[in-house]
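Researcher: Structure prediction, please.
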Amino acid sequence: MAETDSFEVKNNEVFDCQEEGIDVKDHCSNGKVYGNLVHHVGSTGLYVDSWNRYTHDIEVFQNILHDVGDNAFAVASEDGGTLEDIYFYNNIAYNNRYVGLSVSANGLSGPMQDIYVVNNTFYDNGWTEWGGGIVVDNLNAQNVVIRNNVTSQNLYFQIAVNPGLPAQNVTIDHNLIDGYRDHADEGETRGNHYVESDPLFVHAAGANFRLQYNSPAIDAGSAADAPAQDFDGRSRPLDGDHDGLVSYDIGAYEMPYYSEHMYLPAILSGY
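Model: Predicted structure follows.
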């Protein structure tokens, strides 16, 4: 889609095509892309590209992308246009060929700013040769915020930033890192206030990326820029009473507070 203002792309299943699954492009603005399932497409799963126009104020949330033949999510400015105020939250990307989310340097790598990647889950991206959780490659990007994301067992890196990007242009904090690869050539980083641990998903092999009751992602996130709800539509945060704090979880799911003995029936009932 191009040159569209005040739009929604929601509740679609996109599969078995050779190009992008969903492409928001070229002077689109004030839009929401949510509730979509994209899988088995040949190129990028969900792409936001300004091309050579001003593209801005787009929310991308509650989407699941898997088995995509390129990057799962990506933003770009291929022909020099400006991309601004793009917010990715409560998304899940797993088992995609390259990267869960790319702030990419495609084409002319035009200017982009205020790109928020908050409370998403990126698992097992990168098939055989290269790939990872989140990468920031565009040297013209400013105010890229990567916060409260689970990046787990991605192939070559969990979070990477092009070493040529000025440090003040990107903020990385309160992410869970599981499988740090120490690839300095990629600019791999843990960021600040990170948790380095297995996230303890309920059943990753079955694509259930909710958190077990003892997950280290629980209460380890930041309130800054966090969405008001989680992937399932529950309020975020949920557990301000049991520990006396208003605490946000890392990842696409906010875990209700349950004791160990309450946990199993809660999972069986879908929380």
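Model: Residues 5-201 form a domain with the Pectate Lyase C-like fold (CATH 2.160.20.10).
Researcher: Thanks, that helps.
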